[in-house]
Each structure stands twice: as C-alpha cells, then as structure tokens.
Design brief:
The protein has about 220 residues and is α/β, with parallel strands linked by helices. About 35% of the residues lie in helices and about 15% in strands. The N and C termini lie far apart (about 50 Å).
C-alpha cells in the first residue's frame, strides 16, 4: 500500500526542457521498468534520474532510492585496497548524487529525505545476490561496466522497482564496456512493449555549460573518442 507523506518534496521550482519533459514522462510511467540513458557530459542524465526518483518517491513513499556507482578504479585498484570502512572508501564517489540533491531540494528537504532513510548509495561491486523490491535504482557511470556486470545489474530488478542506467560512451575507462551494446539491443519496439527504453541525449542537450557542446563536437569530429 502506498503512503504519501504530508510534506512531499517540492520539485516545481525546476523547469525541464521539452526533451527532458518527454523523457520524464516515459521514466515516471508505472509501466516503465528499465531505462538506459545515454549521452555526453552535461546532458542531465543523472539529474533526470534523481529528479524522477524523487518524483516517484513522492507518489509512493514506500519506494526507496538506491544510487549505485560504477568505479573505474575497480579494474586495477578495488575498494579493498583503500583504507577505512566501506563508507569511507565510497563516499568520495557519490559527489554527483549530492550535487543533484542540492540542486533539486532545499536544505530542509534534503535533511528530511536523509531522516527518512529514503536514499542509499553503494558501489556496484556489492550488488551480486541482491533483489531490488520497492526501489528506484540509479546506476551511474555505466559506461565503465562490462556485459557481465550489466547483466548482473538488470537481473536484480523485482516487484515494484524501476532501474535507470546512465552512461556516456565517450568517457569509458575500460576496454570491454557493455553499455553501448545494451543500449542498442534494448532500443526496439519489443523492448519498449516490456517497459524497457533507451533514451538518448546529444550535445545539443548540454545543460551544464554550453562550452561542453563545443568540446564534445570537436572531439567527435576529430574522432578522438
């Protein structure tokens, strides 16, 4: 049973672009189960995922938000080589999540969502064997995941859960990335009929700073990626 808190988080101060609104409509649809979100840096992939996750949490407060980060360093230097607890090791990597929460929520709202324990974060290394029920799961930096890792991720999903997988193929730090292949495989009508979508941003959708559009365009034209 859903339960709506008296004080939902206010997202009305955020104005989405036309394309973001179209994507948000797909992402918030109850029939949507898995969304691959691709595009260059600065195109609001993580922003849209966190925005929609909070929106869905407002609709059903039983839903928890789980942020997973793919760590490129895990290929050569896993978290086990770093000093401290798992939280100490992983905390430096959740900056993008913190940034989006600061952008979307007031300090009071951010404190509220933390007090509710509505958001959790973990490294992708620790998901094997997990089953995600009543969750909105955001996987960031998915371009640094192999086919096997992505297979593990998407097969964790269970009842009343939605999975957002964000990646930028231009910034892959591993040779055997599976992200682009998964985006292509699941970008068809059959997948969409099962609630699986591939949403693609381009350099024209850059929100962070317009100079990034120029940088991405220059990199693409000179085939540097």
């Amino acid at each position: 049973m859903s339960y709506k808190y008296k004080n939902s988080f206010l997202l009305g101060h955020i104005e989405l672009t036309e394309k973001q609104s179209q994507f948000h409509k797909i992402m918030r649809n109850p029939e949507t189960r898995v969304v691959f979100i691709s595009g260059p840096a600065g195109t609001a992939k993580t922003f849209m995922s966190v925005y929609t996750a909070i929106y869905k949490h407002n609709q059903d407060n039983l839903l928890k938000i789980l942020y997973l980060r793919s760590l490129a360093e895990s290929a050569e230097k896993g978290l086990g080589f770093l000093k401290g607890s798992m939280d100490d090791k992983f905390n430096p990597y959740i900056g993008p999540l913190e940034d989006k929460l600061d952008e979307l929520l007031s300090p009071h709202e951010k404190q509220q969502i933390q007090q509710r324990n509505a958001i959790d974060a973990a490294p992708i290394n620790f998901i094997r064997g997990a089953t995600w029920r009543n969750k909105v799961v955001i996987v960031d930096e998915a371009q640094n995941m192999t086919i096997k890792e992505l297979t593990t991720v998407i097969t964790r999903i269970s009842a009343n859960s939605t999975l957002f997988i964000c990646g930028d193929t231009m910034q892959s730090d591993i040779r055997s990335t599976g992200f682009e292949k998964f985006c292509k495989v699941f970008d068809d009508e059959e997948s969409r009929s099962h609630g699986i979508h591939h949403l693609h941003f381009t350099k024209d959708d850059v929100m962070r700073d317009k100079i990034i559009s120029y940088l991405v365009d220059k990199i693409e034209k000179n085939q540097l990626n």
